[in-house]
């Protein structure tokens, strides 16, 4: 019996996966099917991302009441495919709806980091945008964008539920742009949107 020190079962299974992967890859590349599949799958993922936004159910201050109203029966955000979830690991939108104190900066960044990619952030209300009534206060950040990149700003004190629903709609338009534009145009596409600025 020859013992050359190789673990053939592990070696062979890895080789098999690599070989099959390489052959399939080459065949797909040669026929351009890989590009077509890539574009198609990208479009499907992009469509499913924007058609099912999962904001984190996080209430910070009075703007959170408008968030609650947006989710309740009168405005019913679920009609617009906005589903509030209580775990950051199930969410793709961080909706910041109040002032971020310096003490709360670390926990909110931790929540953001626990959310899977791709993810977006909406700053709702003056407090989340700039500190609002607490602007330049000793213990409040001058906007959540000092610690987390913001995609959509919704000004107001507080913004109405309709404005929040409009914010989700603008976020959808941004997701379409990011998913369909070539890499070169990405900085332009990923610019933050300000509600009421058009
Ligand atoms: S923006 Fe106005 S309504 Fe919203 S949390 Fe700040 S003080 Fe409250």
Question: Can you describe what's shown?
Answer:
The structure is a single chain. By secondary structure, the chain is of the alpha/beta class. The protein has two domains: 8-50, no CATH class; 63-194, Rossmann fold (3-Layer(aba) Sandwich), CATH 3.40.50.12280. 47% of the residues lie in helices and 7% in strands. The chain is built from seven helices and four strands; from the N terminus they run αααβαβαβααβ. The chain has helices at 8-30, 33-50, 63-71, 102-114, 125-130, 161-180, 186-189, and strands at 93-96, 120-124, 152-154, 193-194. It has a four-stranded parallel beta sheet with strand order 1-2-3-4.
Q: List segments where confidence is low: pLDDT < 50 over at least 5 consecutive residues.
A: none
Spatial ordering of strands, largest sheet? 1-2-3-4
The number of helical runs is 7
Q: End-to-end span in angstroms?
A: 78 Å
What structural class do you assign from the helix and strand content?
alpha/beta
Rg over alpha carbons: 23 Å
The arrangement of helices and strands along the chain is HHHEHEHEHHE
Salient structural properties:
single chain, 198 residues, alpha/beta, Rossmann fold, 7 helices, 4 strands, 47% helix
Question: How is the topology of this model organized?
Answer:
Layout: H1 8-30, H2 33-50, H3 63-71, E1 93-96, H4 102-114, E2 120-124, H5 125-130, E3 152-154, H6 161-180, H7 186-189, E4 193-194
Parallel strand pairs: 1-2, 2-3, 3-4
The structure holds iron/sulfur cluster.
């Amino acid at each position: 019996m020859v013992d050359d020190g190789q673990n053939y079962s592990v070696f062979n299974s890895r080789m098999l996966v690599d070989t099959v992967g390489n052959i399939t890859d080459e065949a797909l590349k040669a026929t351009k099917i890989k590009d077509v599949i890539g574009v198609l799958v990208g479009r499907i993922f992009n469509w499913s991302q924007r058609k099912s936004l999962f904001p984190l159910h996080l209430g910070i201050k009075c703007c959170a009441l408008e968030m609650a109203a947006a989710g309740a029966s009168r405005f019913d955000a679920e009609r617009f495919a906005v589903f509030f979830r209580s775990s950051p690991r199930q969410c793709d939108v961080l909706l910041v709806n109040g002032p971020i104190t310096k003490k709360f900066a670390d926990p909110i960044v931790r929540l953001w980091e626990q959310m899977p990619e791709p993810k977006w952030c909406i700053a709702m209300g003056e407090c989340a945008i700039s500190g609002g009534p607490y602007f330049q206060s000793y213990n409040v950040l001058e906007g959540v964008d000092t610690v987390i990149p913001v995609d959509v700003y919704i000004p107001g004190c507080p913004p109405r539920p309709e404005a929040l629903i409009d914010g989700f709609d603008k976020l959808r338009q941004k997701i379409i742009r990011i998913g369909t534009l070539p890499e070169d145009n990405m900085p332009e596409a990923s610019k933050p949107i300000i509600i009421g600025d058009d």
